[in-house]
Specification:
single chain, 96 residues, alpha+beta, 28% strand
Length: 96
């Protein structure tokens, strides 16, 4: 399990958010395992959810994913992609 959880949403022309299907996210992740090492620390987890390591730069991930989704025909011209880090609840604590 990676340290960060990222929300991957397609924003349609009206501004409504839709979780990107896991198959889109997986397609991007598999491509980047061989073409761009900076994205190797990613794991598609569910529709709209990507787990990532701390070395994955969000400022590069969002435009790279959006470009890939457009080239694959997943995103229409009037749509955009939103990648946000989700706060992961702290676990653990002192044992008594």
């Amino acid at each position: 399990m990676f340290a960060r959880r990222l929300s991957i949403q397609r924003i349609d022309a009206s501004g409504a958010r839709h979780p990107c299907p896991i198959r889109w996210i997986d397609n991007f992740a598999m491509r980047n395992f061989t073409n761009d090492a900076v994205f190797d620390d990613t794991l598609p987890a569910a529709d709209g959810l990507l787990e990532a390591g701390t070395r994955v730069p969000l400022e590069r991930l969002q435009p790279a994913m959006e470009d890939w989704f457009r080239r694959k025909g997943y995103l229409k011209h009037e749509e955009r992609l939103e990648v946000l880090e989700i706060a992961v609840p702290e676990t653990g604590g002192a044992a008594s």
